[in-house]
UniProtKB/TrEMBL annotation:
Catalytic activity: hydrogencarbonate + NH4(+) + ATP = carbamoyl phosphate + ADP + H2O + H(+)
Gene3D superfamilies: Acetylglutamate kinase-like (3.40.1160.10)
Xref: Pfam families: AA_kinase
Annotated protein name in UniProt: Carbamate kinase
Keyword hit for NAD: no
The species this protein was found in: Lactococcus termiticola
GO molecular function, one term: carbamate kinase activity
Length: 314
């Protein structure tokens, strides 16, 4: 029986310390090699989503540096579209090379530019939370605020300050129905890059909005809409922990929705890092009754052999 898995890649799978295109392409080639075992036995249909927080923030800065009457800077929704195409191209290249290297040329690869519908009244528009772009020290942050006083910055996990923008919850993926025949044809599909281009519904179609959607919540929505059997959220650690970095820390393996909701109520997961991944996984499990796993790229082999990682069950 063929199993359909939606894989959500963390930012560490694309951008390391070097923001050049070449470095990000090399990082994705490594990522593609690590993901291929999922599909090598022809028993898994894989759909891949990814974030774009660093890339879209960097692109906006480039846009603003060149902003002029004759060459105006693009708005945030358009920048999301640009990075979705950019990273989608890199991912298609990386998967194609990895497939050829592993004698799996039979698997076609496609990257689809997708729009994600959000609610125009989502309270997230009034409370920016999504970090984008580079890190700044305090002096750098103050300098940016002098140039752009309406920007909002937050301290990010002890690594410095980052700009944050609205991150409304996704309600649906416009192109979801068009994706199903591609996936069923054993095409390796990359979709909903950077959470998808944020749009709201209008009488004559859709209108782009200034936001960046969390890629894990978007992945949960994609997984639901394409009827995936599993949602696999990849991050920097093999398991989710409670009492993290404390003497009594404990890794979570198989946990229920009710247990995870209890840990959230205790404040076990950091708002800017593990919490949205856990919440996205819970969203998928509660809507579908199917499992979601949070683990690392490096743990994929063990996930395949032993179902390891933190697996959330109904």
């Amino acid at each position: 029986m063929v199993r359909r898995i939606v894989v959500a890649l963390g930012g560490n799978a694309i951008l390391t310390d070097d923001p050049t295109a070449q470095a990000q392409e090399i990082a994705l080639e490594t990522t593609a090699e690590q993901l291929l075992p999922l599909i090598k036995d022809n028993d898994v249909e894989m759909v891949v989503t990814h974030g774009n927080g660093p890339q879209v923030g960097n692109l906006l800065l480039q846009q603003l540096e060149a902003n002029s009457e004759k060459n105006p800077a693009m708005p945030l929704d358009t920048a999301v579209a640009m990075t979705q195409g950019q990273i989608g191209f890199w991912m298609s290249q990386a998967f194609t090379r990895a497939l050829i290297k592993n004698q799996m040329e039979r698997v076609p690869v496609i990257s689809v530019v997708t729009r994600t519908v959000v609610d125009a009244k989502d309270p997230a528009f009034d409370k920016p939370t999504k970090p984008i772009g580079p890190f700044y020290d305090e002096a750098g942050k103050d300098d940016m605020l002098k140039q752009y006083p309406d920007w909002v910055f937050v301290e990010d996990s002890g690594r410095g300050y980052r700009r944050v923008v609205p991150s409304p919850k996704p309600t649906r993926i416009v192109e979801a129905e068009a994706l199903k025949p591609l996936i069923s044809s054993s095409v390796l599909v990359t979709v909903s890059g950077g959470g998808g281009i944020p749009v709201v519904e209008a009488e004559d179609g859709y209108v782009g909005v200034e936001a960046v959607i969390d890629k894990d919540f978007s992945a949960a929505r994609v997984a639901d809409l394409v009827e995936a059997d599993d949602l696999l959220i990849l991050t920097a650690v093999d398991n989710v922990f409670i009492n993290f970095n404390k003497p009594d820390q404990k890794k979570l393996e198989e946990v229920t929705v009710a247990e995870m909701e209890g840990y959230i109520a205790e404040g076990q997961f950091a708002a800017g890092s593990m919490l949205p991944k856990v919440e996205a996984a819970l969203d998928f499990v509660k809507k579908t009754g199917r499992p979601a796993t949070i683990t690392s790229l490096e743990n994929l082999e063990d996930f395949l052999k032993h179902d390891s990682g933190t697996k959330i069950l109904p």
